Amino acid sequence: MPLSVAEREAFLAEPQIGSLAVEAGEGRAPLAVPVWYDYSPGGEVRFLTDGDSVKARLIAKAGRFSMLVQRVSPTYRYVSVEGPVLRTDPTTLEDLTRISARYLPPDAVEGYVQGSDLHALVTFRMRPERWLSADLGALG
């Protein structure tokens, strides 16, 4: 059953691991990789990566990407979003700290942030244009 707008936005705002997909060129399947991301209902999907990474280069070329988040318990639920890149900026300390804090225990955030090469990172921002979502109920 499809999720309502409020349900899908709330689910995307949870700290799930995103599966990002981007066109990889003619004769290739899309590149799909796991990412940490940030989203607030009604806003932009943001994630950061090394600016010299394969995914960063492919996203810059394609100008858009899609992301899937899912869970299997207590019911199987997913949300998929797709849209254009609105901005690509150098990652700020605030960006890195906010996204890291979504996924790491509080006592691990500072060490992770300090160990990251902030100057190598870029933050991509995408406003979802297309949504797919469902809650398929309990599995099994």
UniProtKB/TrEMBL annotation:
SUPFAM superfamilies in alphabetical order: FMN-binding split barrel
Keyword Ribonucleoprotein included in the entry's annotation: no
Keywords, comma-separated and alphabetical: Oxidoreductase
Entry GO terms, CC: cytosol
Transmembrane segments: none
Molecular function via GO: coenzyme F420 binding; oxidoreductase activity, acting on the CH-CH group of donors
InterPro entries on file: F420H2_bilvrd_red/Heme_oxyg (IPR052019), Split_barrel_FMN-bd (IPR012349)
Superkingdom: Bacteria
Matches recorded under PANTHER family: HEME OXYGENASE HI_0854-RELATED
Protein name: Pyridoxamine 5'-phosphate oxidase family protein
